[in-house]
Amino acid sequence: MQEAVIIEAVRTPVGRRNGALSGIRAEELAAKPLAEVLRRAGVSSDLVEDVILGCVSQVGEQAFDIARQAALIAGYPIQVPGTTIDRQCGSSQQAVHFACQAIISGDMDVVVAGGIESMSRVPMGSNMQGVKLSQALTDKYEIINQGLSAERIADKWGFSRKQMDEFSLESHRKAIIARNEGRFAKEIMPLQVTLPDGTKTMIKEDQGPRDDTSLEKLEGLKPAFRETGSITAGNSSQISDGAVAILIMSREKADELGVKARFRVAARTVIGSDPTLMLTGPILATQKILRKCGLSIADIDIFEVNEAFASVPLAWLAETGADQAKLNPNGGAIALGHPLGASGGRLMTTMLHELERTGGRYGLQTMCEGHGMANATIVEWLE
């Protein structure tokens, strides 16, 4: 059985909604890291056997198999296929899993996985086109807005508004420190963009972190989903634009090509969870993958848990007993943003670079997903 290893991972900066990246078509934005990941690795696109991209709102510019379109725009040969998948917020993490499975099974040796979401150009939910969920589903399960699910999680675990606002402020603080120390520089590819006034500029950093935020400002925000609730725009993930690409090979192929295998994908899993609470899946996925890998929570050096809402990672911490100092050390989606189909790859890319920077051995990534699901991945740094 072949072993799946990660050679390179690169992402665009994450842009705010209607911000610096909003002038770039989604297909063209997706193409940029597809080209860059191979350039950085020194690998020919002729060797790529498939391109697998996550994308949630597959409509408009993100329709018609954006993975295939982006690969062609990126200059990949016509014989390189592409497929687009939707595992909700974990779509690009699932893309990595599918790539690994193709390699481990022996079907392929070189796959590029990643994701794209331009939430400025293709608004969240636009692929529903006004259609309501089937009554056959809603008769069986109470399907509610994710923000209301986040409220119920806060209620169930007893998290106060202050706790969630403090967690959110800390996410911004960590992201700002990481940005100022240049920790994101290696993982981000600078992009030249044209601003609404026609000015061309180079974007090298994520737009989400807010230097001017404070606990007082966060406390002043109104509840977003429930009149008497605690979930606000300030303790929720940001609507964003971004794309990511990760080059994965079999260990044998990497050795044959003489390229450096930087990480081993040690374990992968996915699990379903309560479709009403919806966002508690990372707890179950973490427990499942640790059992699968024969590791304990203390063995993990870095955790990347998507900050869909502050109550989600707080509940994860409460149930897993993980060391909070190891969680999202460079900030999370509350500060950095959450471009849905690209977020799984963004978390993975950030985790890989942080393991290298700090000399950690194991990283664990997990994400909550719509309708109650979660992926989890454990990687091992090969140094």
Automatic annotation (TrEMBL):
It comes from the Bacteria. The keyword GTP-binding does not apply. One of its GO terms (molecular function) is acyltransferase activity. Residues 264-380 form the Thiolase C-terminal domain. CDD domains: thiolase (cd00751). Keywords: Acyltransferase, Transferase. PANTHER family: ACETYL-COA C-ACYLTRANSFERASE, BLR7806 PROTEIN. Belongs to the thiolase-like superfamily. Thiolase family. This is Thiolase family protein.
